[in-house]
Design a protein that fits this description.
Length: about 260
């Protein structure tokens, strides 16, 4: 698929995805969502990719929400379809991606933009970032997982305060309440992201995939996360990388993992 709304490039086995609509603060229109869905599906299936980084073009916004100009005149069924398709093809696809997905929040992360960051496995932010779920100012509620993932991450009281007041919070406050992992000056943001991903990329890829699956199970209704952990733990013993990891440790050398 040729992309016109995002930039997607692989460097050293990281797929860098940049949402490229800076003039509209990278708002998520239908094309952006379609292209994001395609890029995530590609990352999941490609042997060339070990990790994914998602950021926004420019210095002002990660993503300032779903594109409000597309919102008028939706019927009940169309609104449901919009949310359901988005959940399945982008937001759930990111959360369930077997490769780590890092949100690099370089400015406003509002509405669907914060929901995009929430679907990612790890979030880091620049000092100027502002995060919020302002949907109630439009007479809406978050529709791409925000009510669920924000609650899981920061707890019900704080989540409802953010959703009901529609207030934006600073990056510093977001770090203090566990909404982002790190805050760094904007100029250092990509270096910090690479530092984190370079560590993860040195680990055994199948163990990383198992870890993502087991950690995700902690917040899935009707799934016994302890059972998922037991299964995934046992599966790791069947991998060539497990044998390599143990052998390398015993031989006092660095393990070379092949993702098998
Ligand atoms: N959907 C569509 N367009 C958006 C957008 C969105 N979510 N967010 C920003 N834009 C557009 C603006 O309409 C403007 O376009 P224009 O230059 O053609 O008029 C452009 O991006 C720049 O935004 P602007 O509002 O001029 O920047 P600002 O610095 O004054 O304000 C924000 C920044 C983020 C506070 C403001 O853009 C905003 O409130 N955006 C909407 C946030 C929101 O409610 N998101 C949730 C949607 S569900």
């Amino acid at each position: 698929m040729d992309y016109t709304q995002i930039i997607s490039e692989i460097r050293e086995k990281t797929l860098y995805i940049t949402i490229n609509r800076a003039q509209k603060l990278n708002a998520l229109n239908k094309e952006v969502l379609t292209e994001l869905a395609d890029a995530i599906a590609f990352a999941k299936n490609s042997d060339e990719v070990l990790a994914v980084l998602i950021t926004g073009a420019g210095e002002k916004a990660f993503v300032a929400g779903a594109d409000i100009s597309e919102f008028q005149n939706y019927t009940l069924e169309e609104a449901k379809e919009l949310a359901r398709t988005g959940h399945q093809t982008v937001f759930d696809a990111i959360e369930n991606c077997s490769k780590p997905v890092l949100a690099v929040i370089n400015g406003f992360a509002l509405g669907g933009g914060l929901e995009l960051a929430l679907a990612c496995h790890i979030r880091i932010a620049s000092e100027n970032a502002k995060l919020g779920l302002p949907e109630v100012t439009l007479g809406l509620i978050p529709g791409y997982g925000g009510t669920q993932r924000l609650t899981q991450l920061i707890g019900k009281g704080r989540a409802l305060e953010m959703i009901a007041t529609a207030d934006m919070i600073s990056a510093e406050k977001a770090a203090a309440i566990g909404l982002v992992n790190e805050v760094v000056p904007q100029a250092n943001l990509l270096d910090k992201a690479d530092e984190i991903l370079n560590k993860i990329k040195q680990r055994a890829p199948l163990a990383i995939a198992s870890a993502i699956k087991a950690v995700n199970a902690a917040t899935k209704d009707g799934v016994n996360g302890f059972e998922v952990e037991i299964e995934e733990f046992a599966n790791c013993f069947q991998t060539a990388d497990f044998k390599e990891g143990v052998e390398a440790f015993l031989q006092k050398r660095k393990a070379v993992f092949i993702g098998k």
